[in-house]
Amino acid sequence: MPRAGAGRGAATGSLVGHLPLLLITFWIGFNLRASILGVPPVLSVIRSDLHLTYTEVGLLSGLPILAFAAAALPASALVRRWGGYLVVALGLAVAATGELLRVVPGGVLPLFLGTALMGTGIALTQPGMPALFQRWFRGRVQTASVTLTLGITMGELVAASVSRPVLYAGLHSWQGTMVVWGLLGISCLLIWLLGVPRLRVGLSEGSAWELGSLFGSPQLWAVYICFGGQSLVFFAANTWIPGSVQGGPHSALASLSLAALNGAMVPVDVGLILLRRTFATSRWFYFVSGLVTLVGSAGWLWFGHQAPLLFAALMGAGVALNFAGLLAYPPLVAGPGRVATMSAVMLTIGYSCAFFGPLLGGVAIDLGGGDSSPFIPIVVAAAIMVVAATQVRPHLPSRTSGRALEGQLVDSGGR
């Protein structure tokens, strides 16, 4: 494997040969989040139609996140046994099934079951992608990871922006909006099956699973906490921003605020793709991005009515920086047989933390808090991110990383 400096030379070639797989990577990312972020804009309609409490609304928003946490480690075990290609295909199929199950007549039960199944499918998909990146994009792991992030961001932005004013306005039902995202999920599965080479990438390749070292590493816990913090901020903010703006969830300002939160991520991701140096292993990168997140969330809590679009955009930019770097971190520091497992541990711990964001926000409102009370746990999470960022390390001990050559990066992702 090349050293960090050598990776720069290996990555100077044209991206043309990688373009088909990069486009598929983008589309996978788009569908990993569009079906989730298409819900908050129509959440008030769902709550009214099904007579849900605010706590139940928070639980519905948190179910995919809980599934991300619960299924990540089993998914990594499947990657080690079957390889990344088959596990990603299985995840896409399960996710599409769950997306369409949400609209089956029957009230609350199909909605909640479909949401949980959809989240499980997405969770199955996520650990397999970093393992595939090491094989597909040698010398460009960071670029590929940020391309996946850009697809996720665009899925979030499009879903948050069009679900209410376009899809719901045209279809006149929240079920119709979910069918649209389900059909896009099916298209993603077909593209994967027809357009991706069937490589058994991500197998254990003789290395031990070593969950003890992955859970017991202080350096990795800094990464896990940063991921948990940004996940909590992102999912909770998308859930509760519409109800906390002046004019309420049906207002134009609610849609604009969600668009600002998610739209700010696009230029961040594009800028990171164009960046000519490694950032995903830098503690300063995570410290600065944590500060941006903290300023945005605290600003929304105390001054959100004065400048909602500004603070929403700051939250989005900070989360985008963290998310892009953290997705690229495992394939940059871990050996091939441990990338999926390290990613899965990060997803398990991070999304376990994130689950409580929407849920605690709903509890805060039910207990009599104001419209901005759901942002209290968001601010706390952002502050913890800043502290944890100071402990992120660019290299890991070989026992933790599973690397044959201690302290050596897989590639720099530079160009």
List keywords for this structure.
single chain, 415 residues, mainly alpha, globular, Growth Hormone, Chain: A
Helices, strands, pairings?
Blueprint: H1 4-10, H2 19-37, H3 43-50, H4 54-82, H5 84-101, H6 108-125, H7 128-136, H8 141-171, H9 174-195, H10 211-216, H11 218-244, H12 252-263, H13 265-274, H14 283-303, H15 308-333, H16 339-366, H17 375-389, H18 398-401
Looking at the overall shape, the CATH architecture is Up-down Bundle
Mean pLDDT: 82
Compute the number of helices: 18
Sheet having the most strands: none
CATH topology: Growth Hormone, Chain: A
Q: How would you describe the oligomerization state of the chains in this entry?
A: single chain
How far do the termini sit from each other? 17 Å
So what's the overall shape? globular
What is the CATH domain class?
Mainly Alpha
Structurally, how many domains make up the residues? Answer: 1
Helix content: over 70%
In CATH, what is the homologous superfamily?
MFS general substrate transporter like domains
Tell me the series of helices and strands, N- to C-terminal. HHHHHHHHHHHHHHHHHH
Rounded Rg: 20 Å
Uncertain residue segments: 1-13, 404-415
How much β-strand is present in the residues?
under 5%
Structural class: mainly alpha
Description:
The chain has one domain (4-401): MFS general substrate transporter like domains (Growth Hormone, Chain: A, Up-down Bundle). With 415 residues, it is mostly helical. Helices cover 75% and strands 0% of the residues. Mean pLDDT is 82; it is low at 1-13 and 404-415. Helix 11 packs antiparallel against helix 12 (252-263).
